[in-house]
């Protein structure tokens, strides 16, 4: 019987956030004795989440009536505890994180008992990690100078992604000698003259973006759910956070093969629950454009089967430790 702690922050949650379904399903599993939540939004927990000076936490016990509430009253603390009270930690923390938090967490609690492993999250959260698995991606390159940028953009239209961005923030498109940020454009020469330092992941711009960006959620090697996200009208970005819309989908044969190839690499780094984003290439096959390994959404909207399969994947991993 496992005692499990979930670290989360409900500050920007909506009723569709997957935390609530995951917590309910996990709390009802016969192998779970205790399930507590620690909220980063509670001022009492700031010494843990922000100052990294205490392992003591104010906690909420997940009970049968645990559900989303606008006023966050479902996170009202009822008990106190510390990390050593638990067998496993489940990270459901959105970015941004306090500088050094993941490194600290991995030092004070056994990393192999944290889903996902902090050191693995740190490594895979950088867009530069895609260079290690470039065979699954569109043409990509690390761009650290204007000379490198000029050479790369001479080949095809490109996008530039800040190495640690999330939710589509800071992503640029360079097309026809203009730099686009969202729907705002600037002449490339003008933009380039303003740049002092560059550090981006450059990627060929996928011209078939209107066919959707597909998010595939994987837990312990099993595809849990897939959804196509389409750009908003007159936009080239598919992120729901940037105004896109989503609909249910399925993984294609090449995406299933991609998951089979990537999972051993990610599991070795302690990455058990993750999201792959794919875009349609010019050859009609989908290519990897993003890897998300911190707080993966889209599970609860897919229904009870997706929630149950995710929790069974976690429990299977716990049993293997």
Write the topology of this structure:
Elements: E1 2-8, H1 18-27, E2 32-39, H2 46-49, E3 56-61, E4 79-82, E5 88-92, H3 101-108, E6 114-115, H4 118-125, E7 140-143, H5 146-153, E8 158-162, E9 172-175, E10 178-181, E11 184-187, H6 188-193, E12 200-204, E13 213-219, E14 222-230, E15 245-248, H7 253-268, E16 273-280, E17 286-292, H8 304-320
Parallel strand pairs: 1-2, 1-5, 5-6
Antiparallel strand pairs: 2-3, 3-4, 7-12, 8-9, 8-12, 9-10, 10-11, 13-14, 13-16, 14-15, 16-17
Helix pairs in contact: 1-8, 3-4
Keywords: ATP-binding, Nucleotide-binding, Transferase
Pfam families: GSH-S_ATP
Domain ATP-grasp: 127-320
- The top level CATH class name of the largest domain: Alpha Beta
Strand % is 25-35%
Name the strands of the widest sheet in spatial order.
4-3-2-1-5-6
Kindly name the structural category: alpha+beta
Distance between the termini: 13 Å
Any low-confidence stretches, pLDDT <50, length ≥5? Answer: none
How much helix is in the residues?
10-25%
Radius of gyration: 20 Å
Q: Could you say what the CATH topology of the largest domain is called?
A: Rossmann fold
Domain ATP-grasp: 127-320
GO cellular component, one term: cytoplasm
Protein name: Glutathione synthase/ribosomal protein S6 modification enzyme (Glutaminyl transferase)
Pfam family, one: GSH-S_ATP
């Amino acid at each position: 019987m496992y005692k499990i702690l979930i670290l989360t922050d409900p500050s920007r949650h909506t009723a569709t956030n997957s935390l609530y379904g995951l917590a309910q399903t996990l709390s009802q599993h016969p192998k779970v004795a205790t399930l507590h939540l620690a909220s980063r939004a509670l001022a009492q927990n700031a010494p843990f989440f922000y100052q990294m000076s205490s392992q003591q936490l104010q906690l909420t016990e997940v009970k049968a009536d645990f559900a989303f509430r606008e006023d966050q009253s479902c996170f009202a603390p009822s008990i106190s505890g510390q990390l050593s009270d638990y067998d496993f930690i489940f990270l459901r923390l959105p970015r941004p994180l306090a500088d050094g938090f993941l490194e600290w967490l991995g030092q004070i609690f056994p990393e192999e008992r944290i889903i996902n492993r902090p050191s693995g999250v740190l490594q895979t959260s950088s867009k530069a990690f895609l260079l290690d698995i470039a065979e699954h991606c569109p043409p990509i390159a690390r761009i650290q100078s204007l000379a490198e940028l000029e050479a790369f953009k001479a080949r095809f239209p490109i996008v530039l992604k800040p190495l640690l961005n999330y939710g589509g923030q800071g992503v640029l498109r360079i097309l026809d000698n203009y730099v686009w940020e969202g729907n705002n454009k600037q002449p490339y020469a003008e933009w380039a003259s303003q740049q002092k330092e560059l550090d981006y992941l450059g990627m060929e711009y996928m011209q078939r973006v209107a066919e959707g960006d597909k998010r595939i959620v994987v837990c312990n090697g099993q595809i849990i759910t897939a959804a196509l996200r389409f750009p908003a009208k007159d936009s080239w970005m598919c992120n729901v956070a940037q105004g896109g819309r989503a609909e249910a989908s399925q993984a294609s044969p090449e995406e299933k093969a991609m998951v089979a190839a990537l999972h051993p690499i990610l599991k070795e780094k302690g990455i058990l629950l993750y999201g792959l984003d794919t875009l349609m290439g010019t050859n009609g096959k989908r290519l990897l454009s993003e890897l998300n390994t911190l707080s993966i959404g889209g599970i609860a909207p897919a229904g009870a089967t997706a929630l149950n399969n995710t929790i069974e994947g976690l429990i299977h991993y716990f049993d293997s430790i």
